Amino acid sequence: MGELKVKVQELADLALALKYDATPPAPPDEKGAIQFLPLWEMLKAVWPDGAKENRLYVSDNTFEICTIADLRRFVEWDKTDLLNYVGEALDCDDFAQALAGDFARYKEWSGFPVGIIWGALFGGHAFTIAVAWPSLEDRTPRLYYIEPQGDWELAPEMVEAMVLWLVEM
Fold first, then answer.
1. Does a structural domain hold residue 110?
2. Which of 11, 52, 54, 104 has its CA 20 to 30 A from that of 41?
3. What CATH number corresponds to the domain at position 64?
4. For residues 128 and 96, what is the distance between their CA atoms, to the nearest angstrom?
5. What are phi and psi of 166, to 5 degrees?
6. What are residue 118's DSSP bridge partners?
7. How many domains would you assign to the chain?
8. 94-103, 114-123, 160-169: which has the highest mean pLDDT?
9. Does residue 17 lie in a domain region?
10. Residue 11's pLDDT band (cuts 50, 70, 90)
11. Nearest Cα to Cα of residue 13 among 83, 66, 64, 98
12. Residue range 105-132: average pLDDT?
């Protein structure tokens, strides 16, 4: 029990140490909309078994969509990557949920399709998934996979080749 109290205190201390400017970057100047069905179909194409097994979750009927450059601005501002990995007390799923949750915390950013996904990376790993346009010139929605522990992106080919376990958006 004492060890658990120490871990909880470490996390509380870390949260206090990481207080940062709670003003997120300005929202995207240009954005559009993506409906549930096209978004679900994109996810289903990557993870057909998840769709068949009813384990692919898209929570809203309509999402906003912007460029990946705009989402990257938010990820760069976000401080999730500065957290310290603490084993099961603060591990990959906590990082993925923290980054997705930080998008949800701010109304200017909460409407974008950002969620979490589990894959057979490192024997089982959670990371963040987002849908965005590659650019304002190319407004074809694409999936992007963000490693929230380091703010880098996983190659789509790498993720799409692995076994996936859950998608939540």
1. yes
2. 104
3. 3.30.460
4. 5
5. -160, 140
6. 126, 166
7. 1
8. 94-103
9. no
10. low
11. 83
12. 93
Higher pLDDT, 79 or 168: 79
Contacts of 143 (CB under 8 A, 6+ apart): 42, 43, 46, 129, 130, 131, 156, 159
Token duo for residue 26? 């300005």
The domain in which residue 113 lies consists of 31-168
**Confidence bin at 88 (pLDDT 50/70/90):** confident
Please, are residues 24 and 106 in contact by the beta-carbon 8 Å criterion? yes
Give the CA count within 13 Å in the CB-facing half-sphere of 63. Answer: 25
140: phi then psi, degrees, rounded to nearest 5: -90, 115
Q: Which of 147, 157, 167 is closest to 49 using CA atoms?
A: 167
Residue 13 forms part of a structural domain:
no
Confirm whether 22 is domain-assigned.
no
The 3-state DSSP composition of the chain as helix, strand, coil percent (nearest 5) reads 40, 25, 35
In this predicted model, which residue has the larger pLDDT, 10 or 19? Answer: 10
**What is the C-alpha separation between 139 and 7, in angstroms, rounded?**
45
Q: What sign has the CA pseudo-torsion 121, 126, 127, 128?
A: positive
Q: Which residue in 151, 145, 152 sits closest to 46, CA to CA?
A: 145
